[in-house]
Amino acid sequence: MGLGEHHYSLTVQWTGNLGDGTSSYRGYSRDHDIRIPGLPVLPGSADPTFHGDRDRYNPEQLLLAALAQCHMLSFLHVAVKHGVVVTDYQDDATGVMRLNRDGSGQFESVTLNPRVTVVDAAHVDLAEQLHREANAVCFIARSVNFPVHHSPVTEVA
């Protein structure tokens, strides 16, 4: 493994065999568990539209969460580099996924709506500009093939 190379692993275990496996489209549950050693089990399912359990996380939500988390962590990093002191960060992220006639689909876009609180009023404009830099270094945003938009709001503590 090279110095700049990182490997990640986890286990996805389907838990939705209701007795007859996938013998029919409605005859099985989409439930599964995501297991990462040392962490709590993350209960997963399909989106309710696709016969999933609304009380479990679905892949589309987790993709949106990964983008929002990565942007936040990248933003906090670039804020430190530029001397911007952030005291609060919240993002109400949204995503648009389109289904195709053949049953496939894809995300068309994601919009991150970070609400950032900074200590110094003189840093408001800089903080808003730093979202572009954060997007450029966010590993997840750089890995997707759809646009990730940003609509930030910066407030002063």
Task: Describe this protein's structure.
The protein has 157 residues and is α/β, with parallel strands linked by helices. The protein contains two helices and nine strands. It has helices at residues 59-81, 124-137, and strands spanning 11-14, 32-35, 42-44, 86-91, 94-99, 105-112, 114-118, 148-150, 153-156. The protein is elongated.
Count of DSSP-assigned helices:
2
The H/E string reads: EEEHEEEEHEE
Q: How large is the radius of gyration? A: 19 Å
Strand order, biggest sheet?
1-2-3
Nearest-integer average pLDDT: 95
Number of E-state strands = 9
Kindly name the structural category: alpha/beta
Mind summarizing the main beta sheet? 3 strands, antiparallel
Task: Write a brief caption for the model.
This protein is 24% helix and 27% strand. It has 157 residues and is α/β, with parallel strands linked by helices.
Q: Would you spell out the secondary-structure blueprint of this structure?
A:
Elements (H helix, E strand, L loop, with lengths): L10 E4 L17 E4 L6 E3 L14 H23 L4 E6 L2 E6 L5 E8 L1 E5 L5 H14 L10 E3 L2 E4 L1
Parallel strand pairs: 6-8, 7-9
Antiparallel strand pairs: 1-2, 2-3, 4-7, 5-6
Helix pairs in contact: 1-2
Provide keyphrases for this structure.
24% helix, 2 helices, 157 residues, elongated, alpha/beta, three-stranded mixed beta sheet, three-stranded antiparallel beta sheet
